[in-house]
Write a sequence for this structure.
């Protein structure tokens, strides 16, 4: 919680009354970047074979993504695990095989082609799609806009109240308190992905709600 008092050089007169109001503004903004989390799961009784198969498939996926124009520094490993798998027979734990999981994150500003990116990865052997995370590359720009509009909203409320009382409102706030900042991302969850259709997978991220709320004290 932030307290902003840019008018601290102006003394608050003891004979003045004050009014406190809240101001809020929400902007609906289309996301301009996406982070896609997907990967490869391989299984084999020999961990080296499972690991080799996994590495080969991941390399194919990354190569295909680079050919789509995605920079290599926009592709990174988010999770890598080698885990033994067991079956339970008559209450006993019996080794079955090894599972190798390698998940990568792909960052892109080409929102229109998120579906094509996923489809390309799946075509190259990706068999697990965790989620697609839509967000803004510069959320502060929009939040500051919402903050400015929230202040105007608060001023209108205070002006309405003082006009109703038949008195004059001092336009400079005595104090401004920032109450909250809401900038949630849009996350589309997915699971193990198997695609059969030749049509691109459609992803509709919608819009992000950027909300600013402040409490303002005015004198009158």
């Amino acid at each position: 919680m932030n307290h902003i008092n840019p008018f601290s050089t102006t003394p608050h007169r003891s004979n003045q009354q004050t009014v406190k109001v809240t101001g809020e503004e929400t902007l609906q903004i289309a996301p301009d970047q996406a982070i896609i989390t997907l990967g490869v799961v391989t299984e084999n009784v020999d961990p080296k074979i499972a690991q080799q198969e996994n590495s080969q498939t991941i390399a194919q996926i990354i190569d295909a993504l680079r050919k789509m124009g995605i920079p290599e520094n926009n592709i990174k490993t988010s999770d890598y695990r080698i885990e033994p798998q067991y079956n339970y027979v008559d209450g006993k734990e019996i080794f079955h095989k090894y599972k190798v999981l390698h998940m990568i994150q792909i960052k892109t500003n080409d929102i229109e082609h998120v579906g094509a990116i996923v489809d390309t990865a799946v075509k190259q052997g990706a068999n697990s799609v965790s989620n697609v995370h839509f967000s803004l590359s510069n959320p502060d720009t929009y939040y500051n806009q919402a903050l400015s509009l929230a202040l105007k909203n608060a001023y209108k409320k205070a002006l309405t109240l003082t006009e109703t009382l038949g008195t004059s409102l001092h336009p400079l706030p005595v104090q401004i308190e920032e109450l909250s900042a809401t900038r949630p991302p849009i996350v589309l969850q997915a699971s193990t992905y198997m695609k059969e259709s030749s049509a691109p997978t459609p992803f509709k991220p919608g819009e992000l709600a950027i909300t600013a709320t402040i409490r303002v004290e005015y004198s009158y």
In short: Confidence is low (pLDDT under 50) at residues 3-12. Residues 139-165 form the longest helix (27 residues). The chain has two domains: 2-30+139-184+211-219, 33-135.
